[in-house]
Amino acid sequence: MPDTPRKTYAALFRTPEFTPLFLSSSANVAAQTVSGLALGTLVFRATDSPLLSALSMFGPALAQVLGATLFLSGADRLPPRTTLAGLSLAFAAATAALALPGLPVWAMLAIVLVEGLIASLGGGVRWGLLTEILTKDGYLSGRSLFNMMNGVMQIAGYAVGGVLVTVLDPRLCLLLAAALFGTSAALALRLTRRPPRASGRPSVAATWSANARLWSARPRRHVYLALWIPNGLVVGCESLYVSYEPRAAGTLFACAALGMLAGDVTIGRLLPARLRPRLGIPLLVLLAAPYLVLFLRPPLPLTAVLVALASVGFGSSLVQQERLVALTPDDLSGHALGLHSAGMLTMQGVAATLAGTVAQLTSPATAMTVMAVASLTVTLTLTAASRRGATDGGLWPTRAVRTA
User: Among residues 129, 190, 158, 203, which one has the least CA distance to residue 41?
Assistant: First the structure.
């Protein structure tokens, strides 16, 4: 199959509407990063509880699975411009409410739960709109650039947020995050008004029906599982950097971000299209395998190299997302990508909780090994199952298949 030409990153910014969507999403990621760090610090100072602090940061991710079962039909049935702006304004209001003096911790956690519910809709609307702006053929290049932005904004957000939380009151940082959410809303309003991609009113019944339709095809099920579980388990390894290497956790996070950036550039820009489908599973193996060595407690320079090498494997998500888009009807594209995003974040929160529990009972190095072995086991199991169904367009497709 001949390679299809891909837009350069510079050309993407010359595409109408791409820039405001990109900038709005950047402000959104920065706001989420700063607010998460500030809220986690605030809750920990108030309760001295690592569990409650973790829940305040991972709560929105864990709540996304509930939002995906209730509200996700709105991803294709609501006008994207108004929805993205409205969701950012809702986040701004909720984040400002978290900064209220004297707000009890239970109320903070309740607000965080609501944020997670509405965030599940935002991912579907945003990524569905991206398939319209760039078309499905250009989705991979655009999503790789968004992934790169996400990593850069998280590094910058945690770095700046860490300084601000130390120097300023966490509540002031929450107000800064609320202002960033407001900026995201203003940028979203620069998008063109578009009609919804699908007809009908969003409802819980419509969400369940669309989820069942997406899950009914075995190739899509395999892609979803490959997107959610192996990656999520490795994020559980990452959640232990602080306890594994307390004095160099920042270095490990930076190396992981560097590896992820390298993987996104390689898959999104450098690899020919004919090679990408063959690398989805090998990249998932690369994602987990280096963590097996950390059980031996290698020197920090080698640990940093292993972490960076492993994170190149996150590029597998681009391969699987491209496959998911190809397998999904146009009227379900936003819903399908929103389900991917919600499931991925939920699994990351579950894996971080599981990894922390195992580390508490054993050691961080042992917990990393357990999570890596589990990730490899899932990857190999999915590979075997998908090869048996390769003629149906699984993870190892032999031909292009579009499943309704």
Answer: 158
CB 187 within 8 A of CB 20: yes
Contact 365, 278 (CB under 8 A): no
115: number of Cβ within 10 Å: 23
Q: At what angle do helices 105-167 and 170-188 cross, to 10 degrees?
A: 100
Structure tokens at 225: 């599982």
| Intra-chain end-to-end CA distance of the chain, in Å | 23
Is 0.90 topped by the overall pTM?
A: no
CB atoms within 10 A of CB 295: 16
Q: Which of 87, 94, 179 is nearest to 124 (CA)?
A: 87
How many C-beta neighbours within 10 Å does residue 398 have? 11
Q: Do 45 and 53 form a contact (C-beta atoms < 8 A)? A: no
pLDDT digit string (tens) for 348-388?
A: 878 887 888 888 788 889 989 999 999 999 999 988 877 76
Length reported for the chain: 404
- Cβ neighbours of residue 66 closer than 8 Å, sequence gap 6 or more: 116, 117, 120
